[in-house]
Amino acid sequence: MQVLIIDVSKCPECNSTKIQFNSKTHELYCQECGYVMQDRIPVIEAKYGKAEKVYINPKEKKIAIVIKGILKSPIEKKMTPFYAELKKFRLPKYVEAEVISICKKCVEEKLTMSYSKLKLLSATIYLVSKREGIPIMIKGLTKTYGVEKYDILKVAKFISKKFNLKLPNGDVENYIIRITSDLNKEGELTREAIKISKTLNICNPLIKTAVAIWLASQKLKIKLKKYELANACGISELTLRRNLRKSLN
Ligand SMILES: [Zn+2]
To answer: Could you point out which of 6, 14, 31, 102 has its C-alpha 20 to 30 Å from the C-alpha of 184?
Structure first.
């Protein structure tokens, strides 16, 4: 794959840094002197904006432009609505990451031609949260995205089959590793929490994870906030407090 990278840090004529990309004429030009650095750039999708870096793949006739620090590849651009809609649900970061990676696959496979973005997103959230043992109700998805239960289940079944998503449930040790890393506190806390989790008598793996991490943080005097931890685990702060009380008795 041959990729042409154009230096758009400054204009070769007047040294101005105001290089703009015109999405109508497909030109990179200097806003100060009007010098056109490159014209007829093969573009599938591009936005007007202050260009920082431009990658052009002439063979595939694709362009990716870094506008204000964000790399906009054609796939990334199609992902933008997914990111925005996903934020309507408060999910742990590792779940969000999983949802996004599956949605990306859907976009790459052009499933957006057969199903609406919201159907794909709500079905994916349903699948991932179910797999991770996070209590997300179909009712909530319907209310947020306006997608009917029947459609969520149908699309979920399709995605699950297409990408072979029948992965095993995460065990407590895996949850502890992922969540301490979500909280940027991996290392000693991870090891101690895993040790403590083995002594806990709690069935729900996410609650067990939260309690173990909290107890470990107290023992190691690592600062942590209960609501942050509860959020990261996808449980309520109240559930965490209640189970802490139980395990301390
Ligand atoms: Zn110039």
So the answer is: 102
* Residue 7 Cα to ligand 1 middle (Å): 13
Centre of ligand 1 to C-alpha 182, Å, is 45
Number of domain units in the chain: 3
- 3 state SS of 197: helix
Of residues 138 and 190, the one with the higher pLDDT is 190
Residues 14-57 have pLDDT tens digits of 988 887 777 677 677 888 888 887 666 554 444 455 555 555 54
User: Quick one: average pLDDT of 228-248?
Assistant: 89
Which pLDDT score is estimated for 193? 95
What separation in angstroms does the CA of 229 have from each of 208, 226, 234, 245?
12, 5, 9, 16
Same domain? For 177 and 239 the reply is yes
Q: Rounded to the nearest whole angstrom, what is the distance from the C-alpha of residue 37 to the centroid of ligand 1?
A: 9
190 and 136 part of one domain? no
**Alpha-carbon dihedral angle through residues 176, 180, 183, 189, given to the nearest 10 degrees:** 130
166: CA distance to ligand 1 center in Å? 56
Query: pTM score > 0.90 for this model?
Result: no
Report the candidate in 158, 143, 103 with the shortest Cα–Cα distance to residue 125.
103
Higher pLDDT, 234 or 133: 234
* 75 touches 25 (CB < 8 A): no
Q: Residue 14 C-alpha to ligand 1 middle, in angstroms?
A: 4
How far is the centre of ligand 1, averaged over its atoms, from the C-alpha of 30 (Å)? 5
CATH number for the domain spanning 185: value is: 1.10.472.10
**CA 17 to ligand 1 center in whole angstroms:** 8
CATH number of the domain within which 24 lies: 2.20.25.10
Distance 3 CA to ligand 1 centre (A): 25
Structural domain contains residue 167: no
- One domain, residues 63 and 83: no
- Provide the token pair at 159: 């995605």
